[in-house]
Task: structure prediction
Amino acid sequence: MGVSGGGKTTLAQRLAGRLGWPFAEGDAFHPASNIELMRTGHPLGDAERWPWLQAVARWIGEQEAAGSNAVVTCSALRRTYRDLLRDGHPSVLFVQLNAPAGVLADRLANRRHHYMPPTLLTSQLATLEPLQPDEPGFVVDATGPPDAVADLVLARLAALRPTAVPPSATPPVAPC
Result:
């Protein structure tokens, strides 16, 4: 979870690959109307976000019903959005990716083939409600190389849910 440019997709693909878990890109659950709004520089409001979040939550429920661990990206900027995603889904654990605004802006300016314009970063940062201590999950610094961030997340996951993470997926030495 986190704002655009935080590295959600890059990290999720690495985690899913290392863990052998199904992966879903949260952006794929947006209806065309949401994508068009964002493409034209308009931030989504709650009216646009709720159906999208419900679709992501349904996918999570399908994975749980199948007995599968999985990885899904989702900005989940507000606590109420995260509450919806985990309602009835006890397996949900959030990994919030943090990076300074300048790093995020730089990543967005250099990103190609994505509908989300860099101009929406400010509204996302203003909307973001950081993960709270009573929410399931943790926050990581997403400024390092993607493989190092993945190592850190896997080590944290293994510490929190040792039976969910195969030993072959965790780095031999926890990163500093």
Q: What stands out?
A: The chain has one domain: 8-169.
